[in-house]
């Protein structure tokens, strides 16, 4: 197959986390080979997570940018590419790869590369909190503490899960949160408030998944009050991506805007990353903000 123009597509990979780190030095050649089989000659840029934005700036003339990494990397890249209008394609090279699953992007590099080259272009919503973009969800409370504690462990992410959950639970105190959801005010007592970019299924085999990524809504849930033993079980499920919305959450509403009122700062988890943000926290959805490659057969 004749090689296509290398200027039409670029590949930028976060080499510092998840599957990309495990692949090691063989990853660039494997990616190049996968795209070569699709007729694309490309040299992937393997960069540290904090250098993703700078790497994207260097490929501003490409019509499609393939981003390899986990959900945090994809969120950072989406914020940049939504501004430039370039299409984003995905190589699932993180730990959990929730966005890839919801988009129907396979784990296999060859299959993901084929979608990047010949897939359909769709538009999906992005969400943001205080100007920080997320593609999956954001939360405050218990999960943010767990992620921060896990980051402090010198262990693989999966192995750091249990001590991170235990550390967060030891410091847990009930918290009353004042929120405003599409103009309606609520006061809730919860260890964790969850805000999803589009609606998450809470029943059936697809629970924890999103049937649509462009409904223009934020899904707001609060974790049920329960014992510390129950919260420990929830913490473990959440950290490995197995939280059960029916068992663990109380649905509040699907909204377009949400404000968490208060003063000072609060730790916010967003797509597996944690940032300290000034209150009030203002969440909003940006309908159809990102052009993205999806399987041609995706509904």
Automatic annotation (TrEMBL):
PROSITE patterns: DAGK
Keyword Metal-binding in record: no
Keyword Zinc-finger: no
Lineage of source species: Bacteria, Pseudomonadati, Pseudomonadota, Alphaproteobacteria, Sphingomonadales
InterPro entries linked: ATP-NAD_kinase_N, Diacylglycerol_kinase_cat_dom, NAD/diacylglycerol_kinase_sf, YegS/DAGK_C
UniProt keyword list: Kinase, Transferase
Name by which UniProt lists this protein: Diacylglycerol kinase family enzyme
Any one GO MF annotation of this record: kinase activity
Any matching Pfam family: YegS_C
Species annotation: Novosphingobium kunmingense
Superkingdom of this protein's organism: Bacteria
